Amino acid sequence: MKGTAVFKALGPIDLRNVARDEMLRWMMFIPLLIAVVVRYGWPLLVAQLQTSFQFDLEPYRIMIMSYLVIGSPVVFGVVIGFLLLDERDEGSLIALQVTPLTLTNYLVYRLGLPIILTIILVLVSLPLAGIDNFSFGELLLLGLVTAPLAPMLALFLAAFASNKVQGFALMKGGGILFILPFVAYFLDDRWQWLFGLFPTYWPPKLFWMLSENESGVWLVALAGIANQLLWIYLLSRRFNRILHQ
Asked: Among the four 8, 113, 121, 231, which has the fewest Cβ within 10 Å?
């Protein structure tokens, strides 16, 4: 089955599945809502902290704003991960093996869609949040480096959780991976690279470098994509083993 046929066949089904799940339905809009809150709330927060506690938050602006980058793939990764869990439990994925739609084509669709949506959301959410110091090319590069996190998270949930309850638990436990990059921000550059083992490090690192007009952004972008693709490969192998047990 061709790619366009896969989208036509499964796209409406996915829309219905997401629409009938209240949590998944609202999650799609969370990054945009956060972007609006940041745009109008950041100046007020900075002023309030300065007035009440004489604490200047502006020196940490780049670090805090970079969290917006990894917020988008988290949303799509969770949505797709829960859809995979549902379909695995229902036996839909095994049933695909006797249909014109192969499991490989299905996974390309299922994991490719959040990549496209994440890139679009990065392009929209950062300017919406008032982050206007990046060119379109820089925003696109950020989107490309950030996007693989979405299928990676989806595969992580599908490969290690047995149901949505366990999926929620994994989300909470895996939250540490989204905090570690911001610990790295306060370290010397030589020590920061140790955090490169974690796939969530690379998008914020690229954001910091672009914000400071540092050199070597393309090397960081390529290293980040390579790191995430390796994790996707390892997780997909585990998911395939779980699926055929």
From this structure: 8
